[in-house]
UniProtKB/TrEMBL annotation:
Signal peptide: none annotated. InterPro entries: ACT-like_dom_sf, ACT_dom. This is ACT domain-containing protein. It comes from the Bacteria. PROSITE patterns: ACT (PS51671). Residues 4-80 form the ACT domain. It comes from Epidermidibacterium keratini. Gene3D superfamilies: 3.30.70.260. SUPFAM superfamilies: ACT-like.
Length: 223
């Protein structure tokens, strides 16, 4: 079975190798590694591992935790491999069919950010498009249009209760003045500023494709 391990480790040569060795000694195989964030002192990596029958993910966590300066932020089941090319593939697909940009976004955002769901909501709270695992409500309240990309705090920002179940971490980015993309990660870990920047950039580019299609066709596209 595959798991996604988010590890924080010192930003120095040999740190990742030590983690890989510890994971191997715990009976797991590393499938892929993706750098999520780094600040010159520490690196945050998402590591996909395969655990054989009879092995427990807690054993892998314990093995990594025992290394000096290393901590495991989360471990959760994972059903695919990491791909650093998903954003480019998504933009290419939207260029081919700009009218379906909104649905493509909510389908692919969870895969890009290893989250649970995504949706596109209008400023009045109407859910325009949603991914397969997103909350099913077609209209949400309370809701306030995002003015900038932000990590959403469910304790202070106006968000519907159904978005916060299972201790869901939230981030969102405005798609123009009327719409916002919202991404949820049930059970965490919390979204990091680097992930928020990637989402804002991705939404900004997709919005440009959408607007260009509007100018070319002089019609209102589907979100």
């Amino acid at each position: 079975m595959s798991y996604l391990l988010r590890v924080i480790l010192p930003d120095r040569p040999g740190s990742l190798g030590a983690v890989a060795t510890a994971i191997g000694h715990a009976g797991a195989d590393i499938v892929s590694v993706d750098i999520v964030d780094k600040d010159g002192e520490y690196v945050v990596d998402d590591v996909v591992i395969d655990i054989g029958p009879g092995q427990m993910p807690d054993e892998v966590m314990s093995a990594a935790h025992q290394l000096p300066g290393v901590s495991v932020e989360s471990i959760r089941p994972f059903d695919g491999a990491l791909s650093t090319h998903r954003e480019l593939q998504l933009l290419e697909a939207m260029s081919v069919d700009p009218t379906g940009a909104g649905q493509l976004m909510v389908d692919e955002i969870p895969r890009i950010f290893r989250s649970g769901w995504a949706l596109l909501v209008r400023q009045d709270g109407e859910v325009i498009v949603r991914g397969d695992s997103a909350p099913e409500a077609t209209h949400v309240t309370p809701w306030r249009q995002l003015l900038r990309a932000k990590i959403i705090d469910s304790t202070s920002d106006p968000v519907p209760m159904e978005w916060t179940v299972l201790d869901t971490s939230l981030m969102g980015a405005p798609a123009g003045e009327e719409y916002s993309f919202v991404c949820g990660r049930p059970g965490g870990p919390d979204f990091r500023p680097s992930e928020l920047s990637r989402l804002a950039h991705l939404v900004g580019i997709s919005r440009s494709i959408w607007l260009r299609h509007m100018e070319d066709t002089k019609t209102t596209p589907k979100p």
